[in-house]
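agent> fetching stored inputs for the WQD docking request
agent> found them:
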Amino acid sequence: MAILVTGGAGYIGSHTVVELLNADYEVVVVDDFSNSKPEVLKRIKEITGKDFTFYNVNILHEHELATVFRAHQIDAVIHFAGYKAVGESVEKPLMYYHNNLTGTLVLAQLMQEYDVKKIVFSSSATVYGMNNVSPLTEDLPLSTTNPYGTTKMMIEQILQDVYVSDPTWSIALLRYFNPIGAHESGRIGEDPNGIPNNLMPYITQVAVGKREALNVFGDDYDTPDGTGVRDYIHVVDLAKGHLKAVEKVLQTKEIQAYNLGTGHGYSVLDVVNAFEKASDQNVPYNIIERRAGDIATCYADPTKAKNELGWQAALSIEDMCRDSWNWQKNNPNGYEE
Ligand code: WQD
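agent> prediction call returned; pasting tokens
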């Protein structure tokens, strides 16, 4: 029962590999380290005490990826590999469309060739666009405002069309909200390249002294304190949601989208306050202008995942802040020694 994990050395991928190994799955990881580091693989083995197979492969390279399918009896695929920076995608759309779409097409064609028709896809709440009102349900119309989000929406459409052509496939489209936090060990966590785009890694870098202060992108939204409201979910809860989705696709032949969120929205200042309390660190901040493309409020209705996957988030915003800080303070330079 081998599970192939593309992008398994990444932030969410590595946490998911830990949970797969803890559940005694045989795991095969492919990653090209374009947004991760080899050190992660050692940390996963350290945390779990278990081994897994790794290939340093870019999924765009069909012949290299084919060797993986030939060497292993793959029962299902969890597909994380892809670029994910919203701002970068606006600057470099062709790089995003080629990497994310072509990589998925190469993967899906090899899955078809080797009769592997079960996939869990790493999608994103960003496909709900700016016109839907939270709490968000999976049946809402999709739209996107940046090339990164559009690749996610296009891949969902590609997989939908594959299912229509061959209903013996089983496909789970997991729409993540805002993953934060880290494994309780503090040995794996979020390690963004350069200046963090996302809120929590920026906060932790301020707390550890790498950044002067947090810039809060606007406090004039129609929210309780004027700052943006999001559905933050602990990355370990998210990883466990993937295990439930793998169980589902192994047992069924269908295509379903699922929101992986807590169903609760927290503002930027809520997160800052919760982090300061959990870490006992001060996080100075400045209120500046809104960031282009941001929406006021975005949070999930996670009912479908609860009813159909038997999954719901269990960890609190305090747990998320505590574990984010534990990772950052123990690894001030991420995975760089
Ligand atoms: C959260 C809130 C910001 C940074 C993005 C992608 C989404 C997914 C998750 C990949 C917002 C505010 C942030 C900062 C701030 N990524 N903020 N100062 O934009 O909700 O979602 O990441 O799948 O696709 O769109 O997450 O963490 O960037 O922002 O004030 O330095 O924090 O305005 O309200 P976002 P985020």
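agent> quick read of the result: The CA atoms of residues 262 and 313 lie 5 Å apart.
agent> awaiting further instructions
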